TrEMBL record, chain A:
<keyword id="KW-0067">ATP-binding</keyword>
<dbReference type="GO" id="GO:0005524">
    <property type="term" value="F:ATP binding"/>
</dbReference>
<dbReference type="InterPro" id="IPR003439">
    <property type="entry name" value="ABC_transporter-like_ATP-bd"/>
</dbReference>
<dbReference type="InterPro" id="IPR050107">
    <property type="entry name" value="ABC_carbohydrate_import_ATPase"/>
</dbReference>
<feature type="domain" description="ABC transporter">
    <location>
        <begin position="10"/>
        <end position="247"/>
    </location>
</feature>
<dbReference type="Pfam" id="PF00005">
    <property type="entry name" value="ABC_tran"/>
</dbReference>
<keyword id="KW-0677">Repeat</keyword>
<keyword id="KW-0762">Sugar transport</keyword>
<keyword id="KW-0813">Transport</keyword>
<dbReference type="InterPro" id="IPR027417">
    <property type="entry name" value="P-loop_NTPase"/>
</dbReference>
<protein>
    <submittedName>
        <fullName>ATP-binding cassette domain-containing protein</fullName>
    </submittedName>
</protein>
<keyword id="KW-0547">Nucleotide-binding</keyword>
<dbReference type="InterPro" id="IPR003593">
    <property type="entry name" value="AAA+_ATPase"/>
</dbReference>
Amino acid sequence: MPTNGTTPLVEMRNISIAFGGIKAVDGVSVDLRPGEVVGLLGHNGAGKSTLIKILSGAYKPDAGEIYVNGEHADIATPRDAKRYGIETIYQTLALADNIDAAGNIFLGREVLTPYGTLDDATMEAETRKVMARLNPHFRRFKEPVKALSGGQRQSVAIARAIYFNARVLIMDEPTAALGPAETQQVADLVLQLKKEGIGIFLISHDIHDVFGLADRVSVMKNGKLVGSASVQDVTQDEVLGMIILGKCPPGATPGPGAS
Amino acid sequence: MTAPVASTAPPPSAASGSFLSKLEIDARMLGMLAALAAIWIGFDLLSGGVFLTPRNLWNLSVQTASVAVMATGMVLVIVTRNIDLSVGAILGVVGMIIGVAQVQWLPAYLGLEHPLTAPLAVVLAMVIGGSIGLFQGWLIAYLGIPSFIVTLGGLLVWRGAAWWVTTGQTVAPMDTRFKAFGGGVEGALGATTTWVIAAIACGLIIIALGFSRRRRLRFGFPVRPGWADAVIAALACGIVLAAAAIANAYPLPAGTARRWAEANGLTWPEGGLFIPHGVALPVLIAILVGLVMTFIATRRRFGRYVFAIGGNPEAAELSGINTRWTLMKVFGLMGLLCGISACISTARLNAATNAAGSLDELYVIASAVIGGTSLAGGVGTIAGAMLGALVMQSLQSGMVLLGVDTPLQNIVVGAVLVLAVWVDSLYRRRIK
């Protein structure tokens, strides 16, 4: 593993969570360093989304610890996660459809005027700035996001995650609903954010998406970690074997889920 | 934070677009106003010119106040994908309690007709209504019981509690100052006050429009053309002044006017005196409630959260919004507004009866829905709901004027509700 000595930005240790007796995540450990992209792979239902929802504060784990910059972090709510600089782009985008782009980007973190009212003008100005960087053709600032195309909605969700100086970015199936051009845009963005030193968890069930962008991959199966590997040390076929069969190749560090 | 955004903004005011789109007036709202105009003119023709008289319009405004106040809260409740079936029953129990407070409890300490009786009764009404609302909100938000069930239970519980306060006896009469909340002669504010209020309202409209325009210009956002802002200001001020003029065109009845004149040391001339009613206190209260609720819904963080919860509850939760506490506050606010409406209807009746507010829940919900609040959540405006209340009340008083039997009135109101929602759904589908 390319451990260059730095403390991990985020480390999740032995995380477990069960829903109604079914262990959705069972003793999984993953970590992420500054400027690193870690691909989290596995079939649908392997527990990837559940694992990252624990990191983003949506679920509280039954067991296990989270460390941010080497220090124990107590993440019980999405607000806690954001305080640690952990931002998430959910697979569903998690946008309030009836509210405009600025309202969504600043949802839960509204800019207020000195009188305690919503400072819509400032929020719209900031939105125009961040959208100019992400999606220069974006014009529909006043419309509810329901009226936007899939790619535009995606840009709003991304803008919300990067606007607040995220240090850790979680992207859950970020390209699932996008066309080829927009997928390339997301890939460019990932590389740009990586250069800025942001750590990124990239969740996908498609290894082709991940292989070009990730430095490392961690594979989950049935809620357990099959193994983690640097992308140079394994082939795509070997990773496919990890996903489908749970078979850990020699180049990877096996986890408890390896058969 | 200022200049660089201007380059990305679209050119100010796209050249195309119709007259209406330049005014940025909501087409839906315009449709409702057209429907209201049709109802008013229709009833005026059918009743031989009785409907559009200052007297009838003044009464209409007073009759609308109570339901309109509650409808503003129902908008927020429905926007969060909930419902409140208990508003009429809460109005009933609060009305009973403040009735007894004025007639029995407070006089025991303050004496009859004490100046503090009315304000204390109003505060009591708001506290009790708000507490009941918060309690129901807690059951809904924190215990996860569906609002339909909690408030259906509430409907029975609070109606029963209203009976329990006096074991069904009607309490009357109310404190004289308190009676002003119901309108009538005590609650008519008079010509001068009405003009002053209208002038202040016009001033505020112009200031608000100018302020929002300057702010958008400062950030380099597109603004309406100057003439469009002027037209809007003129329209809004025109409506305010016309309403004031109508309220001032309705004179006090001769006997009351005479008593008023004598009390004020005026001689009673041969032809009688024209003493205008002016706007009624409950109407002023309803308008103020509407303004405050609009402010809360659109300018405050709380309002933004309410709409976010309605649009996507999961997204709101993931954004770090305390959705439960927000929901509990929405129901608390609804209860508080029921308390205000309880004051208005108890004062108007000059009596607290345990049947007060019966079926009000249905009128309030219907007003909100006719006013464009979507039962699917996330969509609705305060102004629309108040206009909806006015439409409902117009239908009802118009039919009373025409001497339509009560059962037929209910049939018509019910049919109109269904029709309105159908037309609205057609409109929304076309917009998409």
